[in-house]
Amino acid sequence: MLEFSAGNAAVAHDELQAAVDAGETRPLALRALARLKFESAAAAHSDKDNIPAEAVAPAIDLLLQAHQSNPPLAEVYLDLSEIWDVSAHPLSIDDVAVLAAGIRRFPRNLELVSRLVQMQAARGKWKTARSILNFARARAINSASIKILTELDARLRELETSL
């Protein structure tokens, strides 16, 4: 993890892969290795918005394993949403359920809320996008968060009416 934190991707990848191969299941290690695998896959493809599903599958598998582990990490769901957003991997019902679990666990993570609302809106899932937004708004704990969520709601309404 030190090598990952220091930005030494090659050494970090090898050490993390060896740890995972030896049975490491801590979400932080799984997430770090997944991040390195995703970044490597993204670097290998010229179309950064349509990375083949098979190229990102190893990263997704690690993140799904981290999703099942404790303690939960918001970064796992942020990474999954990022990967699913830029890959040619069509979201399944199970994938959406994983992202929903992230929102249930981290309803105050505004980056996660915003990303998932935007993903659902881009897929034409307006009701789901609004449901995520309302869930987060009901759990907002300060005026700054409420303001950000209100602005996101306005953008969502604008998108919805423009189509």
Spans of at least 5 consecutive residues whose pLDDT stays below 50 are none
Care to count the β-strands? 0
Rg calc: 17 Å
- Give the end-to-end Cα distance, rounded to a whole number of Å: 45 Å
Structural class: mainly alpha
How many distinct folded domains? 2
Major sheet attributes: none
Shape: globular
User: How much of the polypeptide forms β-strand, as a percent range?
Assistant: under 5%
pLDDT averaged over residues: 92
**Helix percentage:** over 70%
Descriptive tags:
single chain, 163 residues, mainly alpha, 2 domains, 9 helices, globular
Quick description:
By secondary structure, the chain is an all-alpha fold. It has helices at residues 2-6, 9-21, 27-43, 53-67, 74-86, 93-105, 110-122, 126-139, 143-162.
Structural commentary:
The chain has 163 residues and is mainly alpha-helical. It folds into two domains: 1-106; 108-163, no CATH class. It contains nine helices and no strands. It has helices at residues 2-6, 9-21, 27-43, 53-67, 74-86, 93-105, 110-122, 126-139, 143-162. Helix 2 (9-21) packs across helix 3 (27-43), helix 3 (27-43) packs antiparallel against helix 4 (53-67) and helix 7 runs parallel beside helix 9. The model has no long low-confidence stretch (mean pLDDT 92).
Provide the fold topology.
Layout: H1 2-6, H2 9-21, H3 27-43, H4 53-67, H5 74-86, H6 93-105, H7 110-122, H8 126-139, H9 143-162
Helix pairs in contact: 2-3, 3-4, 3-5, 4-5, 5-6, 5-7, 7-8, 7-9, 8-9
